[in-house]
Amino acid sequence: MLVCIVAVGSEMLTPFRLDTNSLVITERVNAIGGDVRLKAVVGDDVQELVRVLTAAAEWADLVVMTGGLGPTEDDITRDAVARIMNVPLDVDPRIVDALGERFARRGLTMTENNRRQALVPRGATVLDNPNGTAPGLWIERGRTAFVLLPGPPREMTPMLDAVIRDRLAPSAGGAGLFRRVLKITGRPESEVDAVAQPVYSKWTAQEVPIVTTILAVLGQIELHLTASANAREAADRALDGAVAELQTVLGSSVYSVDGRPLEAVVGDLLRARHLTIAVAESCTGGLLTSRLTDVSGSSDYVERGYVCYSNRSKMELVGVPESTIREHGAVSEAVATAMAEGAAGRAGTRVGIGITGIAGPGGGTPEKPVGTVAIAVVVDGRATIRTVRLFGGREMIKFQAAQAAMNLLRLTLASA
Amino acid sequence: MLVCIVAVGSEMLTPFRLDTNSLVITERVNAIGGDVRLKAVVGDDVQELVRVLTAAAEWADLVVMTGGLGPTEDDITRDAVARIMNVPLDVDPRIVDALGERFARRGLTMTENNRRQALVPRGATVLDNPNGTAPGLWIERGRTAFVLLPGPPREMTPMLDAVIRDRLAPSAGGAGLFRRVLKITGRPESEVDAVAQPVYSKWTAQEVPIVTTILAVLGQIELHLTASANAREAADRALDGAVAELQTVLGSSVYSVDGRPLEAVVGDLLRARHLTIAVAESCTGGLLTSRLTDVSGSSDYVERGYVCYSNRSKMELVGVPESTIREHGAVSEAVATAMAEGAAGRAGTRVGIGITGIAGPGGGTPEKPVGTVAIAVVVDGRATIRTVRLFGGREMIKFQAAQAAMNLLRLTLASA
Q1: Domain count for chain A
Q2: Residue B20 CB coordination number (10 Å)
Q3: For site-directed labelling of A227, which of A61, A181, B61, B236 has its Cα 20 to 30 A away?
Q4: Same structural domain for residues B51 and B192?
Q5: Domain CATH code at residue B11
Q6: Whether residues B366 and B394 fall in one domain
Q7: Which residue is closest to A109 within chain B, CA to CA?
């Protein structure tokens, strides 16, 4: 199945935005054996979109389009598809009713331009959008199926999954690309690759071949394993073995093989041990506690957080002695430890974390340059302490500092 | 000047990689009046690339290609361009010599496949690559100029800049696209568009035409204004007037016309008024304080944050009376107000914020469904209170709640 992905929207032809929907679409169509041959981004320009779709119709079995289905004049996807099909656009009264109800439920009145979303090229099937106003569309021309999905990822993804499940997977017959992702933190990419490459390089020639890609993202490394197989069972067997081999050589730096983010991994460790946690953060400004609470159900173990941004707040909120700040500096292992102990002590939790560092761009010194972050994890009064040197801009340093703190907590709990 | 950007490389047709070179290319060609109409990503497939280039040659004045210029069999850009030009590939002896020297300097021997990089479609001009082995190419066919650049950004960008400076800018004569972005929050997209569209629709026909794109992102709406003008001064005049007109009709919902994010806007308001702030957050879990501290220099006004995730912590940390929680529930305007007052009172700041809500997916009730968030802003003891109903997943609700709280703070400070 040859696939073309088209993102529609002039904002994605500016220097400010990228189309990221195509990554999800690629993953989903790969899984049912689809081969993405071309990705295109077109502006809010009917003629240009007609040109791209006409060209794609000559070779593609599936054209997945995102965006341009909203209520404004700029939203031209419906019009372009109607043109290449040479069919009129009809108002679908069920869509009008559904839109009216949706607005009424929120106490709003539907404006006239919202009715544009009810226009359907004749012959198209309407695809429900459970998370938004713009319905999707499915329409066929010759060998080519066109799928029109809205641009916002949280609307697009479930609709794509429904199309894959109901319309595309049944004819795929089980063959496809099957994937696993190992997530690793606390080691540099070159070191991970030096260890992993001798292992994964031999998998490309086996009966169920596995291709491995290494991907460095902020604060972590991912190893993407892609098996090409005629059936899920054969792929699963090969991938299970491959994942186990990599875990053996990479050890405890692998924190997830099932897609869970680090915050969920540490959350599960805390919950399994019936522990609650209190966090005292300075340079991360609340980001660590926020990430811990991104996990649904985290109120089971997150008791509270202190954002001790000023020195006064470090003393008042978590009882860091003024003398410790004076002697060691606000960014020091001694202060991080006092913060972790103070947070746990005042909150009455068995686990406490303290983070203090220099997020930059100002505030660095030759001894403690920007990116220096001291982290302490206290479990039942026993402290584990690290100082890390992080690189990048302010937000990147904050993110990596939160990541390093969660990883230190993970390793501490796993070895306890 | 109509522009098409083509990225070549099969890795960018996987779920793991995006083409980001196109953002830089867009910015540079926009600045000299180039209008990017289409972006495409093609794999290492000569036929497919020939198809895309042939189609682009029908309308584009400039086709900028990145990638596919390396030494391996997969690197097919030179071959595809030679095919559409219908010219042979010649070995350029100067490139061979330069490659040989480069390898020798590093104590390496040039492998045979590196000679592929010395192949030049007859009639093309070679573009120097100061940062890598693959030279670039410039070749013209009819109205269309094709520019071939290597994929790695640190090689691509300086070569692009040289092409712009030496070959494209001289004929552009100062003309270009000039941009402004208005950021708006607290109003739905359809309402913003209904108000703004009658204003901006008339600008497309004026002497310096301005095209306006509306872009809904989580928690905010952006209006992108792009003026096409022969000189920066004319564009600035037209854009200043346009921005002022939109601000008049959209009023205080416009929070930024200079690119600043909301956290920087409220930070500047706090700093200008010599105010410091303390935040008490429940459902946002520290995200609001973290976003406030994303701004460099925010330690001037962020004193501290309390993440009161449990009811006990609401009482202990910011003194919410148990009776208030019992009578009104933890998610209530009364509790939000007590949190804001307690945060400011205990921190000794003139500004306090309290946020309490249901981020979901669990915890909703018919009266207080998931997404219900109560927000209080207290300035010098006077409280401004809002309850909002937000939609989406847990992280989206957290983000929008932080956004709504910052906006309430902004409006309170602006009117004080």
Answers
A1: 3
A2: 13
A3: A61
A4: no
A5: 3.40.980.10
A6: yes
A7: B191
B212 and B251 together in one domain: yes
The minimum CA-CA distance between A241 and chain B, rounded to whole Å, is 23
ipTM: 0.81
Distance CA B146, CA B298 (A): 47
Q: Do B215 and A17 touch (CB under 8 A)?
A: yes
pTM: 0.82
Alpha-carbon span A355 to B270, nearest angstrom: 26
Q: Which of B299, B309, B315 to mutate to test the interface with A (most CBs of A within 10 A)?
A: B309
- pLDDT, tens digit, 9 for 90 and up, residues B197-213: 999 999 998 999 998 98
Which of B16, B42, B224 has the CB atom closest to A14's CB atom? B224
Query: What are B173-194's pLDDT values in tens digits?
Result: 778 888 899 999 999 888 999 9
- Final residue before a domain boundary, out of B148, B172, B196: B172
Residues B16 and B152 grouped into a single domain: yes
d(CA B368, CA B149): 56
Could you say which of A297, A298, A310 has the minimum Cβ distance to residue B303?
Answer: A310
Cβ neighbours of A39 in B, within 8 Å:
12-13, 40-41
User: B298 and B190 in one domain?
Assistant: no
Sort strands B277-281 and B89-91 into parallel, antiparallel or unpaired.
Answer: unpaired
Contact (CB<8Å) A304/B308: yes
Q: How far is CA B238 from the centre of its chain?
A: 24
Picking from B3, B37, B387 by the largest number of A CB atoms within 10 A of its own CB, the best residue to mutate is B37
CB contact under 8 A, A154 and B36: no
Distance CA B283, CA B287 (A): 9
Q: What is the mean pLDDT of chain A?
A: 93
Structure tokens at B45: 């497939």
Per the structure block, which two tokens stand in for B40? 């495409």
Amino acid B202 reads K
Same domain, A222 and A329: no
The residue of chain A with its CA nearest to that of B278 is A307
Q: What is the count of residue pairs from A and B with beta carbons less than 8 Å apart?
A: 234
* pLDDT (mean) for B281-301: 97
Does residue A114 share a domain with residue A78? yes
Phi, psi of B114 (to 5 degrees): -65, -20
The three-state secondary structure class of A67 is coil
The answer, yes or no, to whether residue B47 has pLDDT greater than 90, is yes
DSSP three-state, residue B342: helix
DSSP B201: G
B310, A304: Cβ pair inside 8 Å?
A: yes
